[in-house]
Amino acid sequence: MSKALEGLRVLDLTRVLAGPYATMLLGDMGADIIKIEAVGHGDDSRQFGPYVNGESAYFMSINRNKKSITMNLKNPEAIETFKEMVKKADVVVENFRPGTMEKLGIGYEALKEINPSIIYAAASGFGHTGPYSKRAAYDAVVQAMGGIMSITGPAGGPPVRVGSSIGDITAGLFCAIGILAAVCHKKDTGEGQKVDVAMLDCQIAILENAISRYFVTGVSPKPQGNRHPSIVPFETFDTADGIIMVAVGNDSLWAKFCNEIGLPELIEDERFNTNPKRIDNYDELRPFIAEAMLKKTTAEWQDALDKCGVPESPINNIEMVLKNPQVLARDMIAEVEHPVAGATKIPGVAIKMSGTPGEIELPAPTLGQHTDEILSGFLGKTPEEIAHLKEVGAV
Amino acid sequence: MSKALEGLRVLDLTRVLAGPYATMLLGDMGADIIKIEAVGHGDDSRQFGPYVNGESAYFMSINRNKKSITMNLKNPEAIETFKEMVKKADVVVENFRPGTMEKLGIGYEALKEINPSIIYAAASGFGHTGPYSKRAAYDAVVQAMGGIMSITGPAGGPPVRVGSSIGDITAGLFCAIGILAAVCHKKDTGEGQKVDVAMLDCQIAILENAISRYFVTGVSPKPQGNRHPSIVPFETFDTADGIIMVAVGNDSLWAKFCNEIGLPELIEDERFNTNPKRIDNYDELRPFIAEAMLKKTTAEWQDALDKCGVPESPINNIEMVLKNPQVLARDMIAEVEHPVAGATKIPGVAIKMSGTPGEIELPAPTLGQHTDEILSGFLGKTPEEIAHLKEVGAV
């Protein structure tokens, strides 16, 4: 079966997370991803542990479906070779600090001279404009700066960083969206363009209603712990052996929930019989529920609440996530055979397309695994030309 | 200037967050978003406070660039009218519980009979397959189930929900990517398809390296607070008047940082002179830094660390985010004039495209604001036909 992005040629200069995440998504849907890595060293994340037979599990988890060529972009012959590749490519993606590509002589202005329809996508910490543009950013810095930490954490407690690198990952997602919109426009008009995505901008874009709440109330929202700001009960409770999240989203669920936890008298209690009243009288209500929830184990509550249709979930750790029947049924844990690391497990393809399903066809490449194949197959170089490029240290 | 997705016609049946977030992204880039809302009631999030002149700030923040038509999809004439719209549309997006569209007679199988090239995108809690498929989900439930809570929170403390609805928002982002990939495929082949995105799947996809770490080590990662798992020092410290995040990403920054905080003797200290040693001797190292950081205010440290190039950020609350010079320079806070609410501020467009820049052209619609315009302009209905549809309660 064909893939949605078959034939889309992407030159991928990105490292570590935001950029590689974006190109992984494109590769999953069939784009040809040519990952250009520094000679000898490669993507920085190849040095991130833990390792399997010397291969970084971190690197392997986000670089499937890509081919690796090593190039030394400080070598003039490598730059010439890169420019030859740009002539035949649809998309260039980079996540260097702004200005680096220009210093190498391959900024957007230079590349569009070579290929006017090229789509040039840049993922950076702060974007290619503005006073912070040239600063280095890390995920933790943009999480702190962009506001998400200020609304995450135990109620009344300190701000907390989101445990996965949401600053990088959301930038990767926005970058993929920008690239695909540009591809649509190119298919219609033949025109290329530059797509500039900043990690900090994306943090603003995912704040949900925090910004509008601030503008209306004049008060900055604070960490709320696990409680929903405007629905009660909608939070975690301790059970006999752990914790459970319950989401009593409306009054009909409220009645079912009260019956199930053995407190039917609360359903019509004047203090609690509507959601606004449950919010107002939260401090009175919570102890009743908290005490009731301690009487069964998490697994027992799961069974009971599922049966009466009250949305719930245990707080799964990673081991539990990987055993979850829905996660498994959706193929969200993929097993991949890596030539060096052997069988490894990585997240599956989250976008399920009926006509052109995504697929993990290739494990993450070893460093420079496809250098010869790309130089000969994609660029038509002769063995002598390839030998020369290696000799001068260009690839 | 033209827009990247100009001419793309999207019928948007979605409510609250994941679906509306996806169609907002498409609308920002020029797609025509026809938001179909329940007669009288509309998108559920129109009832979410806080309100400005009776209009929900929540709703307004994610429904710009859309036109609203009200339809009662339980009325057979409304279903006929919807099917007429499908004939002229490129994309249908819905986020009902799986099975709802089939019950209404407008599931993917029915719609592709009418328009074989239609792209049908569904965002749901658990997806359209698997044992949990028919269950209701809320953001808090998928955050608990998908593992991100188990790695978010103070070190040694309880798991914490991410303060913005990342379960919905990432599903919206993946959904937009799936739709655009399907649009690319349709432009090449004329073929439509179904795109099925589950909030839970997306939670697995954003776990970063937690899954591969588990497979290599056999240990489920735990909440780490604000500390980086493999770089030191890379975390928050208390200052004289608040908190600051510092990200000392390599040994060269380590030297600059030690000099700046008045502890140059630590640079070459045998216990701390490489990152692996700083990790091993973390408990010895932290008190030195913590004490030093208390000596200046957050603003003073910002100045000092910026000057020597050490990445840092205060933990901005929403008020501070909205005053940040980079956020403002990037137009990430947009002012929109709403016909009822007046001037409101909402997040800007995060994807910056040089050739076809996104734009906020329309404020969020009032309920049914464009019903007549869509029926006459898009479907070519006469005033009499429109009056009839209203009379029978179809629109």
For the largest interface, the chains and their residue counts are: A-B, 146 and 146 residues
**What's the number of helices of chain A?**
17
Helix residue percentage of chain A: 25-40%
Strand coverage percent of chain A: 15-25%
Mean pLDDT of chain A: 96
Order of the strands making up the biggest sheet of chain A: 5-2-1-6-7-8
Main beta-sheet strand count, sense and barrel state of chain A: 6 strands, parallel
| Measured distance between first and last alpha carbons of chain A | 34 Å
Runs of chain A in which pLDDT lies below 50 for 5 or more consecutive residues are none
Spatial shape of chain A: elongated
Strands of chain A, count = 14
This entry's quaternary arrangement is homodimer
* Class derived from helix and strand content of chain A: alpha/beta
Q: Please give the radius of gyration of chain A in angstroms.
A: 26 Å
Topology:
2 copies of one chain form a homodimer.
Chain A: E1 9-12, H1 18-28, E2 32-38, E3 51-52, E4 55-56, H2 57-62, E5 66-71, H3 76-87, E6 91-94, H4 100-103, H5 108-114, E7 119-124, H6 139-146, H7 166-189, E8 193-198, H8 199-205, H9 210-217, E9 234-238, E10 243-247, H10 251-260, H11 275-280, H12 282-293, H13 298-308, E11 312-314, H14 318-323, H15 325-329, E12 333-338, E13 342-347, E14 351-353, H16 371-378, H17 383-391
Parallel strand pairs in A: 1-2, 1-6, 2-5, 6-7, 7-8
Antiparallel strand pairs in A: 3-4, 9-10, 10-11, 12-13
Helix pairs in contact in A: 1-7, 6-8, 7-8
Give a structural overview.
Two copies of one chain form a homodimer. By secondary structure, chain A is of the alpha/beta class. Helices cover 39% and strands 16% of the residues of chain A. Chain A is built from 17 helices and 14 strands. In chain A, the strands form four sheets. A six-stranded parallel β-sheet of chain A has the order 5-2-1-6-7-8, with helices on both faces. In chain A, α6 crosses α8 (199-205). The two termini of chain A are 34 Å apart. The interface between A and B is large, with 146 and 146 residues.
